[in-house]
Specification:
7 domains, five-stranded antiparallel beta sheet, 17% helix, elongated, binds adenosine monophosphate
Length: 905
């Protein structure tokens, strides 16, 4: 039967008559047998149906009333079971089948038990027994041949539960029936030993009163718990509700012979199968939990075991060094062999070399690396604060996650550079048609006393073959005999003595400073208006170089122009270094006129060649979109740049910017080009703070400039920047550009303040007409304001020419003590204040980058520690895209690294 299937172990306590004391030995004086327990149950041998002799206990005192005959088993050990089953087989005579029996004849008997720890009780009082049941024959008269009689064999099963003592005694009470007890089987049920989900559950005795027994399984060999395995053993011996499981240990799988074969592995305790060793690794033995890397290959601690073994990268390639005086930019391409990893970083070693036998020693802490020296994730670094006129050797090492594990030398490349220090030319003045006067400043930190300067110059197109050398001890030189309209390259060489040997003229002790300087003697060249061309495309062809679109890589959008987006990107022309460029594109759906106007900017710009005029690299007109490519100005437009850096520059720096703009404007006016929209928003600033005049489109004043307003005469004019005569009768000349230049001066010195603040255009026109002029901005040296006022002379011929403006500014720069520093404003305080900061917010505030607080916190940079190794690309990701801001943040990070939480601002 299904139930019997669960009876997996049973204990037969066959009631062997031999061992059953119906009457305990009478020798125990304390418990004499009660008189009622007479010898009524008899042990009798009979034959069963197969004629095998069998012993039965019988009682059949049906003829006498008041029967009370007891038959008792020996002590039956409980064996841990709480519930015990008793199966009895018996025959019971039907009273009716016995002739002449009185009414006292019974057809039932009672079954009792008594729990006890004592296995040797010979006497148990009737009242101590607990009744199990009254047993009646249900199958009367089953045919069993017992000798000459036919008997019926009954089988009854009862159970007793919640047993707790060592064992128990069973007893049968006859009250006057005719019974033959054939067998008594006592058993309990167990849940059998079983293995499920790789956990073994032991033989478990079922609980009492149908309670479930919770059993914890044990993981079988080579397996371990994934989740504690448990099951419940039910009262009828079945396992229920399996929970949890074990899984094969590393190196084993639940498959055939359980072990991973050579060449395969299993890294963790999971129910997955063994897998093939990843590339560059193998396992030679069975049961591998990981594969061993081949020679020369490694696995970093954090690499997953499933990852291929990797090796250190090869050396960086294509190193380019750009020396800018005492600052070197090193760039390189990533190693050809990455070693199979993506975590390449670079580290630099810097050594300073000297002497004929080239002795090199570590550079020490005075040299700074931007963004950092070690663990660089970009293939570029800027090294600053080098000594001038020195040789340096940089070793650029490429590293990855396994470099430290490899005993072989690392992929490294060496770059040698020589630093310089230049003189800076501050004045260039044309004396006559064929001569020019050059004046310059000596190097800031000469390596000794300057002995003399050499000026070497040659015509740009003639290369160096035909050069002239002039020598002077002073800082001024006039060069005669030049050809008008020709571009010259001049080289300044300053020779100086090392301080120790001064004043002896020992040639081996000379140091040289170089400055390469290009100047052009203005000749007859004037600007040609693109409208003078019948075919405007010809103007583009004449003045702008066609660039193949494939040499341009657009990287990101940096602004919006009148005709479409302005992007930044890179340009790599054959045989030239890759450079950063700005790319203006003409949006789709343009008309012919729009295309002409768009390209007119290129044909105008292409005619200019001056360090303070934005340089045209070329145009893309043969494919769409049509693009204008110019040099990239990292700091964007001047007005925004100044607003961002309010108060951060010295007056000399501001004057330097103004000098650049004036110089660019002088060049334009020399070429008879009138800009008409000179304003700080149309000046671009590069990473060296060089300002360049931009925005040359033909339509610009009319359409492009948001500041332009319609005048009563119909044109659109940027009122605040425009001279009265240009507003009144459109008299645009270089003199009106000078007026605008005065406004730009005011914008620069006031760090991007709006001219005339919130006054309306009408009020501005009226005020100017009544003689009102913008007052000096805060901290503005008197000389500068005077120059502005000169630019704003009502009579345009009274205004200075751009050439004079440049001269005036040069004078200021050369003699700052006289003109500027004598009225040193508070912003000129040369001491750099130090702040102690403890949070990212405080730090950003201290370095005046508070506007990025949210960018930092939402990118997860919440502690100062976390910003210590921030990179440019991370800054870009957080929208810190301005090169100046990036530089400021990174150089402050560097000082955080070296000086802890004292931040210089
Ligand atoms: P534009 O159409 O010339 O007024 O240019 C729109 C904006 O794009 C400017 O305000 C600048 O922010 C940016 N831009 C234009 N040209 C350059 C450049 N050469 N380098 C960097 N940014 C530029």
């Amino acid at each position: 039967s299904p139930q019997m299937r669960f009876i997996l172990s049973w204990l037969i306590m066959f009631l062997s008559l031999k061992y059953t004391h119906i009457f305990p030995p009478p020798c125990n004086p304390l418990t004499p047998p009660p008189p009622s327990l007479s010898l009524q149950w008899e042990e009798i041998s009979v034959m069963d149906e197969r004629n095998t002799p069998m012993r039965t206990y019988q009682v059949c005192n049906v003829m006498e009333a008041s029967q009370n005959n007891w038959l008792r088993t020996r002590h039956i050990a409980r064996d841990g079971a709480q519930r015990v089953y008793i199966e009895i087989k018996f025959t019971l005579r039907d009273c009716n089948s016995l002739p002449g029996v009185p009414g006292t004849c019974k057809e039932t008997f009672n079954m009792f038990y008594y729990e006890s720890n004592n296995a040797n009780l010979w006497f148990i009082k009737e009242s101590q027994y607990i009744k199990i049941d009254t047993i009646a024959a249900d199958e009367s008269f089953t045919q069993v041949d017992v000798g000459d009689r036919v008997m019926k064999l009954n089988t009854e099963v009862r159970d007793i539960s919640n047993l707790s003592k060592k064992g128990f005694y069973l007893a049968f009470q006859d009250l006057g029936a005719c019974i033959a007890l054939v067998s008594v089987r006592v058993f309990y049920k167990k849940c059998p030993l079983t293995v499920l989900n790789l956990a073994q559950f032991p033989d478990t005795v079922t609980g009492g009163d149908s309670a479930l027994v919770e059993v914890r399984g044990l993981c079988v060999n080579a397996s371990e718990e994934f989740e504690a395995p448990r099951m419940y053993c039910s009262a009828d011996g079945g396992w229920l509700v399996p929970i949890g499981r074990c899984v094969c240990k590393p190196g084993y799988e639940e498959h055939k012979d359980f072990s991973c074969r050579p060449g395969s592995y299993k890294a963790s305790a999971t129910d997955a199968y063994c897998t093939k060793c990843p590339p560059h690794s193998s396992s030679h033995l069975e049961r591998a939990s990981e594969c061993v890397c081949e020679n020369g290959f490694h696995r970093a601690e954090t690499d997953p075991r499933s990852m291929a073994c990797t090796r250190p990268p090869s050396a960086p390639e294509n190193t380019i060094s750009t020396v800018n005086e005492t600052c070197v930019t090193l760039e390189w391409s990533p190693p050809r062999d990455t070693g199979g990893r993506g975590d390449i970083t670079y580290s630099l070693r810097c050594r300073k070399c000297s002497g004929d036998d080239i002795k090199c020693a570590p550079c020490g802490s005075g040299v700074h690396f931007v963004p950092r020296q070690f663990g660089l994730s970009v293939a570029m670094v800027m090294v600053t604060d080098l000594q001038p006129h020195s040789n340096y050797s940089f070793t650029i090492e490429s590293l990855n996650g396994v470099s430290d594990l490899s005993p072989t030398p690392r992929g490294a490349v060496m770059v040698n550079v020589t630093t310089s220090q230049t003189v800076s030319v501050v004045l260039k003045e044309r004396r006559s048609k064929d001569s020019i006067t050059l004046a310059w400043q000596g190097p800031d930190r000469p390596n000794g006393a300057i002995v003399e300067y050499e000026v070497i110059y040659y015509e740009k197109n003639q290369r160096e073959q035909n050069y002239t050398v002039l020598k002077t001890r002073s800082n001024v030189m006039t060069v005669d005999g030049l050809k008008p309209g020709t571009t010259y390259v001049s080289l300044f060489v300053s020779s100086s003595h090392p301080v120790s040997t001064y004043p002896l003229l020992a040639p081996q002790g000379l140091f040289f400073s170089y400055l390469c300087f290009v100047f052009k003697l203005p000749g007859s060249k004037t600007y040609i208006h693109p409208h003078t061309y019948e075919d405007p495309n010809q103007a583009v062809r004449d003045f702008a170089k066609e660039i193949d679109a494939s040499s341009i890589r657009i990287e990101r959008v940096i602004g919006a122009g009148e005709f479409g987006e302005v992007c930044s990107g890179r340009l790599r022309l054959q045989g030239k270094r890759e450079i950063y460029v700005a790319i203006k594109s003409l949006k789709a759906g343009y008309s012919d006129k729009q295309r002409r106007d768009f390209l007119s900017e290129a044909s105008i710009m292409g005619q200019f060649d001056h360090p303070n005029i934005i340089r045209l690299e070329g145009v893309v007109t043969r494919c769409k979109p049509v693009m204008i490519i110019t040099e990239f100005m990292e700091n964007g437009s001047l007005d925004t740049f100044l607003k961002k850096h309010d108060g951060q520059f010295t007056v000399i720096q501001l004057v330097g910017m103004l000098r650049g703009i004036a110089s660019g404007m002088k060049y334009l006016s020399d070429m008879s080009y009138v800009h008409r929209d000179l304003a700080a928003r149309n000046i671009l600033v590069n990473s060296n703070l060089v300002c360049k005049v931009s925005d040359f489109g033909l339509s610009r004043v009319l359409e492009d400039d948001p500041e332009a307003a319609y005048t009563t005469r119909g044109g659109k004019i940027p009122i605040r920047w425009t001279s009265p005569e240009a507003i009144a009768y459109r008299k645009f000349t270089s003199a009106s550009d000078v007026w605008s230049y005065g406004i730009v001066m005011w914008e620069v010195v006031s760090y991007g303040e709006r001219p005339y603040w919130e006054m309306s255009n009408q009020d501005v026109i009226k005020a100017i007409d009544e003689g009102y002029r913008l007052p000096a901005p805060m901290d503005c040296p008197v000389v500068l304001h005077q120059l502005m006022l000169d630019c704003w002379e009502k009579g345009r011929s009274e205004r200075p020419k751009f050439g004079q403006i440049v001269t005036t500014l040069d004078k200021l720069i050369r003699n700052p003590n006289v003109y500027i520093l004598s009225c040193l404003p508070s912003r000129e305080d040369p001491t750099t204040p130090e702040f102690s900061v403890s949070t990212v917010e405080e730090w950003l505030e201290a370095i005046k980058m508070g506007q990025y607080k949210e960018n930092f916190s939402s990118a997860g940079y919440v502690t100062l520690d976390s910003v210590l190794y921030i990179t440019i690309s991370e800054l870009v990701k957080m929208d810190v895209t301005l090169a100046g801001h990036q530089k400021k943040i990174l150089s402050s990070v560097q000082s955080l690294q070296t000086q802890g939480t004292h931040v210089q601002v």
